[in-house]
Amino acid sequence: MIRSFFKAKARFPIFSVSDLEIMRTAMRNNERDGITGYLLRDNNTYLNVVEGPTAAVEAMLRRVAKDSRAFDFQIFSLMPTQERQYPAWCMGYHEHAESQVKACPINTFLATPAAQSVGPVLEAMQMLGLRQISNDRRVTQRTASS
Ligand SMILES: Cc1cc2nc3c(=O)[nH]c(=O)nc-3n(C[C@H](O)[C@H](O)[C@H](O)COP(=O)(O)O)c2cc1C
Predict the structure, then answer these.
(1) E-assigned strands of the chain?
(2) What is the residue with the minimal CA distance to atom 29 of ligand 1?
């Protein structure tokens, strides 16, 4: 199993239909391929951490690298791992309030991506991602029980 962390610039504005389409495709394919992780969309950048079977993650990275909805694709880390850090796949938007906090490792990284900030930014993304997944679960449970 591998975990990869990459960035790409977004071709279309935040909250555009292209993000919805990316999310739909990713949810469908990642469920099929055993890929979990978190896709974070900032004003004009995607930060993505994905984990799963090596061949499936590599194939997915090749598809994203060719995707015309994004450009400046850049892989920051690609590491073997025994354990998943994300129980599911989800997508989130970097909230405005959070993006004003300069000390947030995600903002520091977006401003000047540096090898030494990969660790802290991944920790921050894991927290945001897990929060998002538990919110998504609550919504699903509510919908199922109503
Ligand atoms: C930033 C970004 C992240 C993406 N993440 C995923 C992903 O996690 N899984 C996936 O299958 N496709 C993802 N995609 C979409 C792929 O680039 C590609 O369009 C898709 O995998 C094609 O799937 P299909 O052959 O089933 O239509 C992403 C695209 C972008 C721009």
Answers:
(1) 2-10, 36-41, 45-52, 70-80, 89-93
(2) 64
47 beta partners:
7, 40
* Distance, C-alpha 136 to centroid of its chain: 15
Whether 106 contacts 125, CB under 8 Å: yes
Q: Atom 17, ligand 1: which residue's CA is nearest?
A: 64
Give the pLDDT of residue 115. Answer: 87
Q: Determine the pLDDT at residue 84.
A: 96
CATH number of the domain where residue 37 is located? 3.30.70.100
* Structural domain count of the chain: 1
Query: From ligand 1's centre to the CA of 22, what distance in Å?
Result: 6
Compute mean pLDDT per 10 residues along the chain, 146 residues long, and list them: 97 92 97 97 94 98 98 96 95 72 82 90 93 84 75
CA of 105 to the centre of ligand 1 (A): 26
Domain hosting residue 72, numbered range: 2-145
How many angstroms does the Cα of residue 32 sit away from the middle of ligand 1? 13
Task: Using the atom order of ligand 1, give the atom closest to the CA of residue 35.
Answer: 8
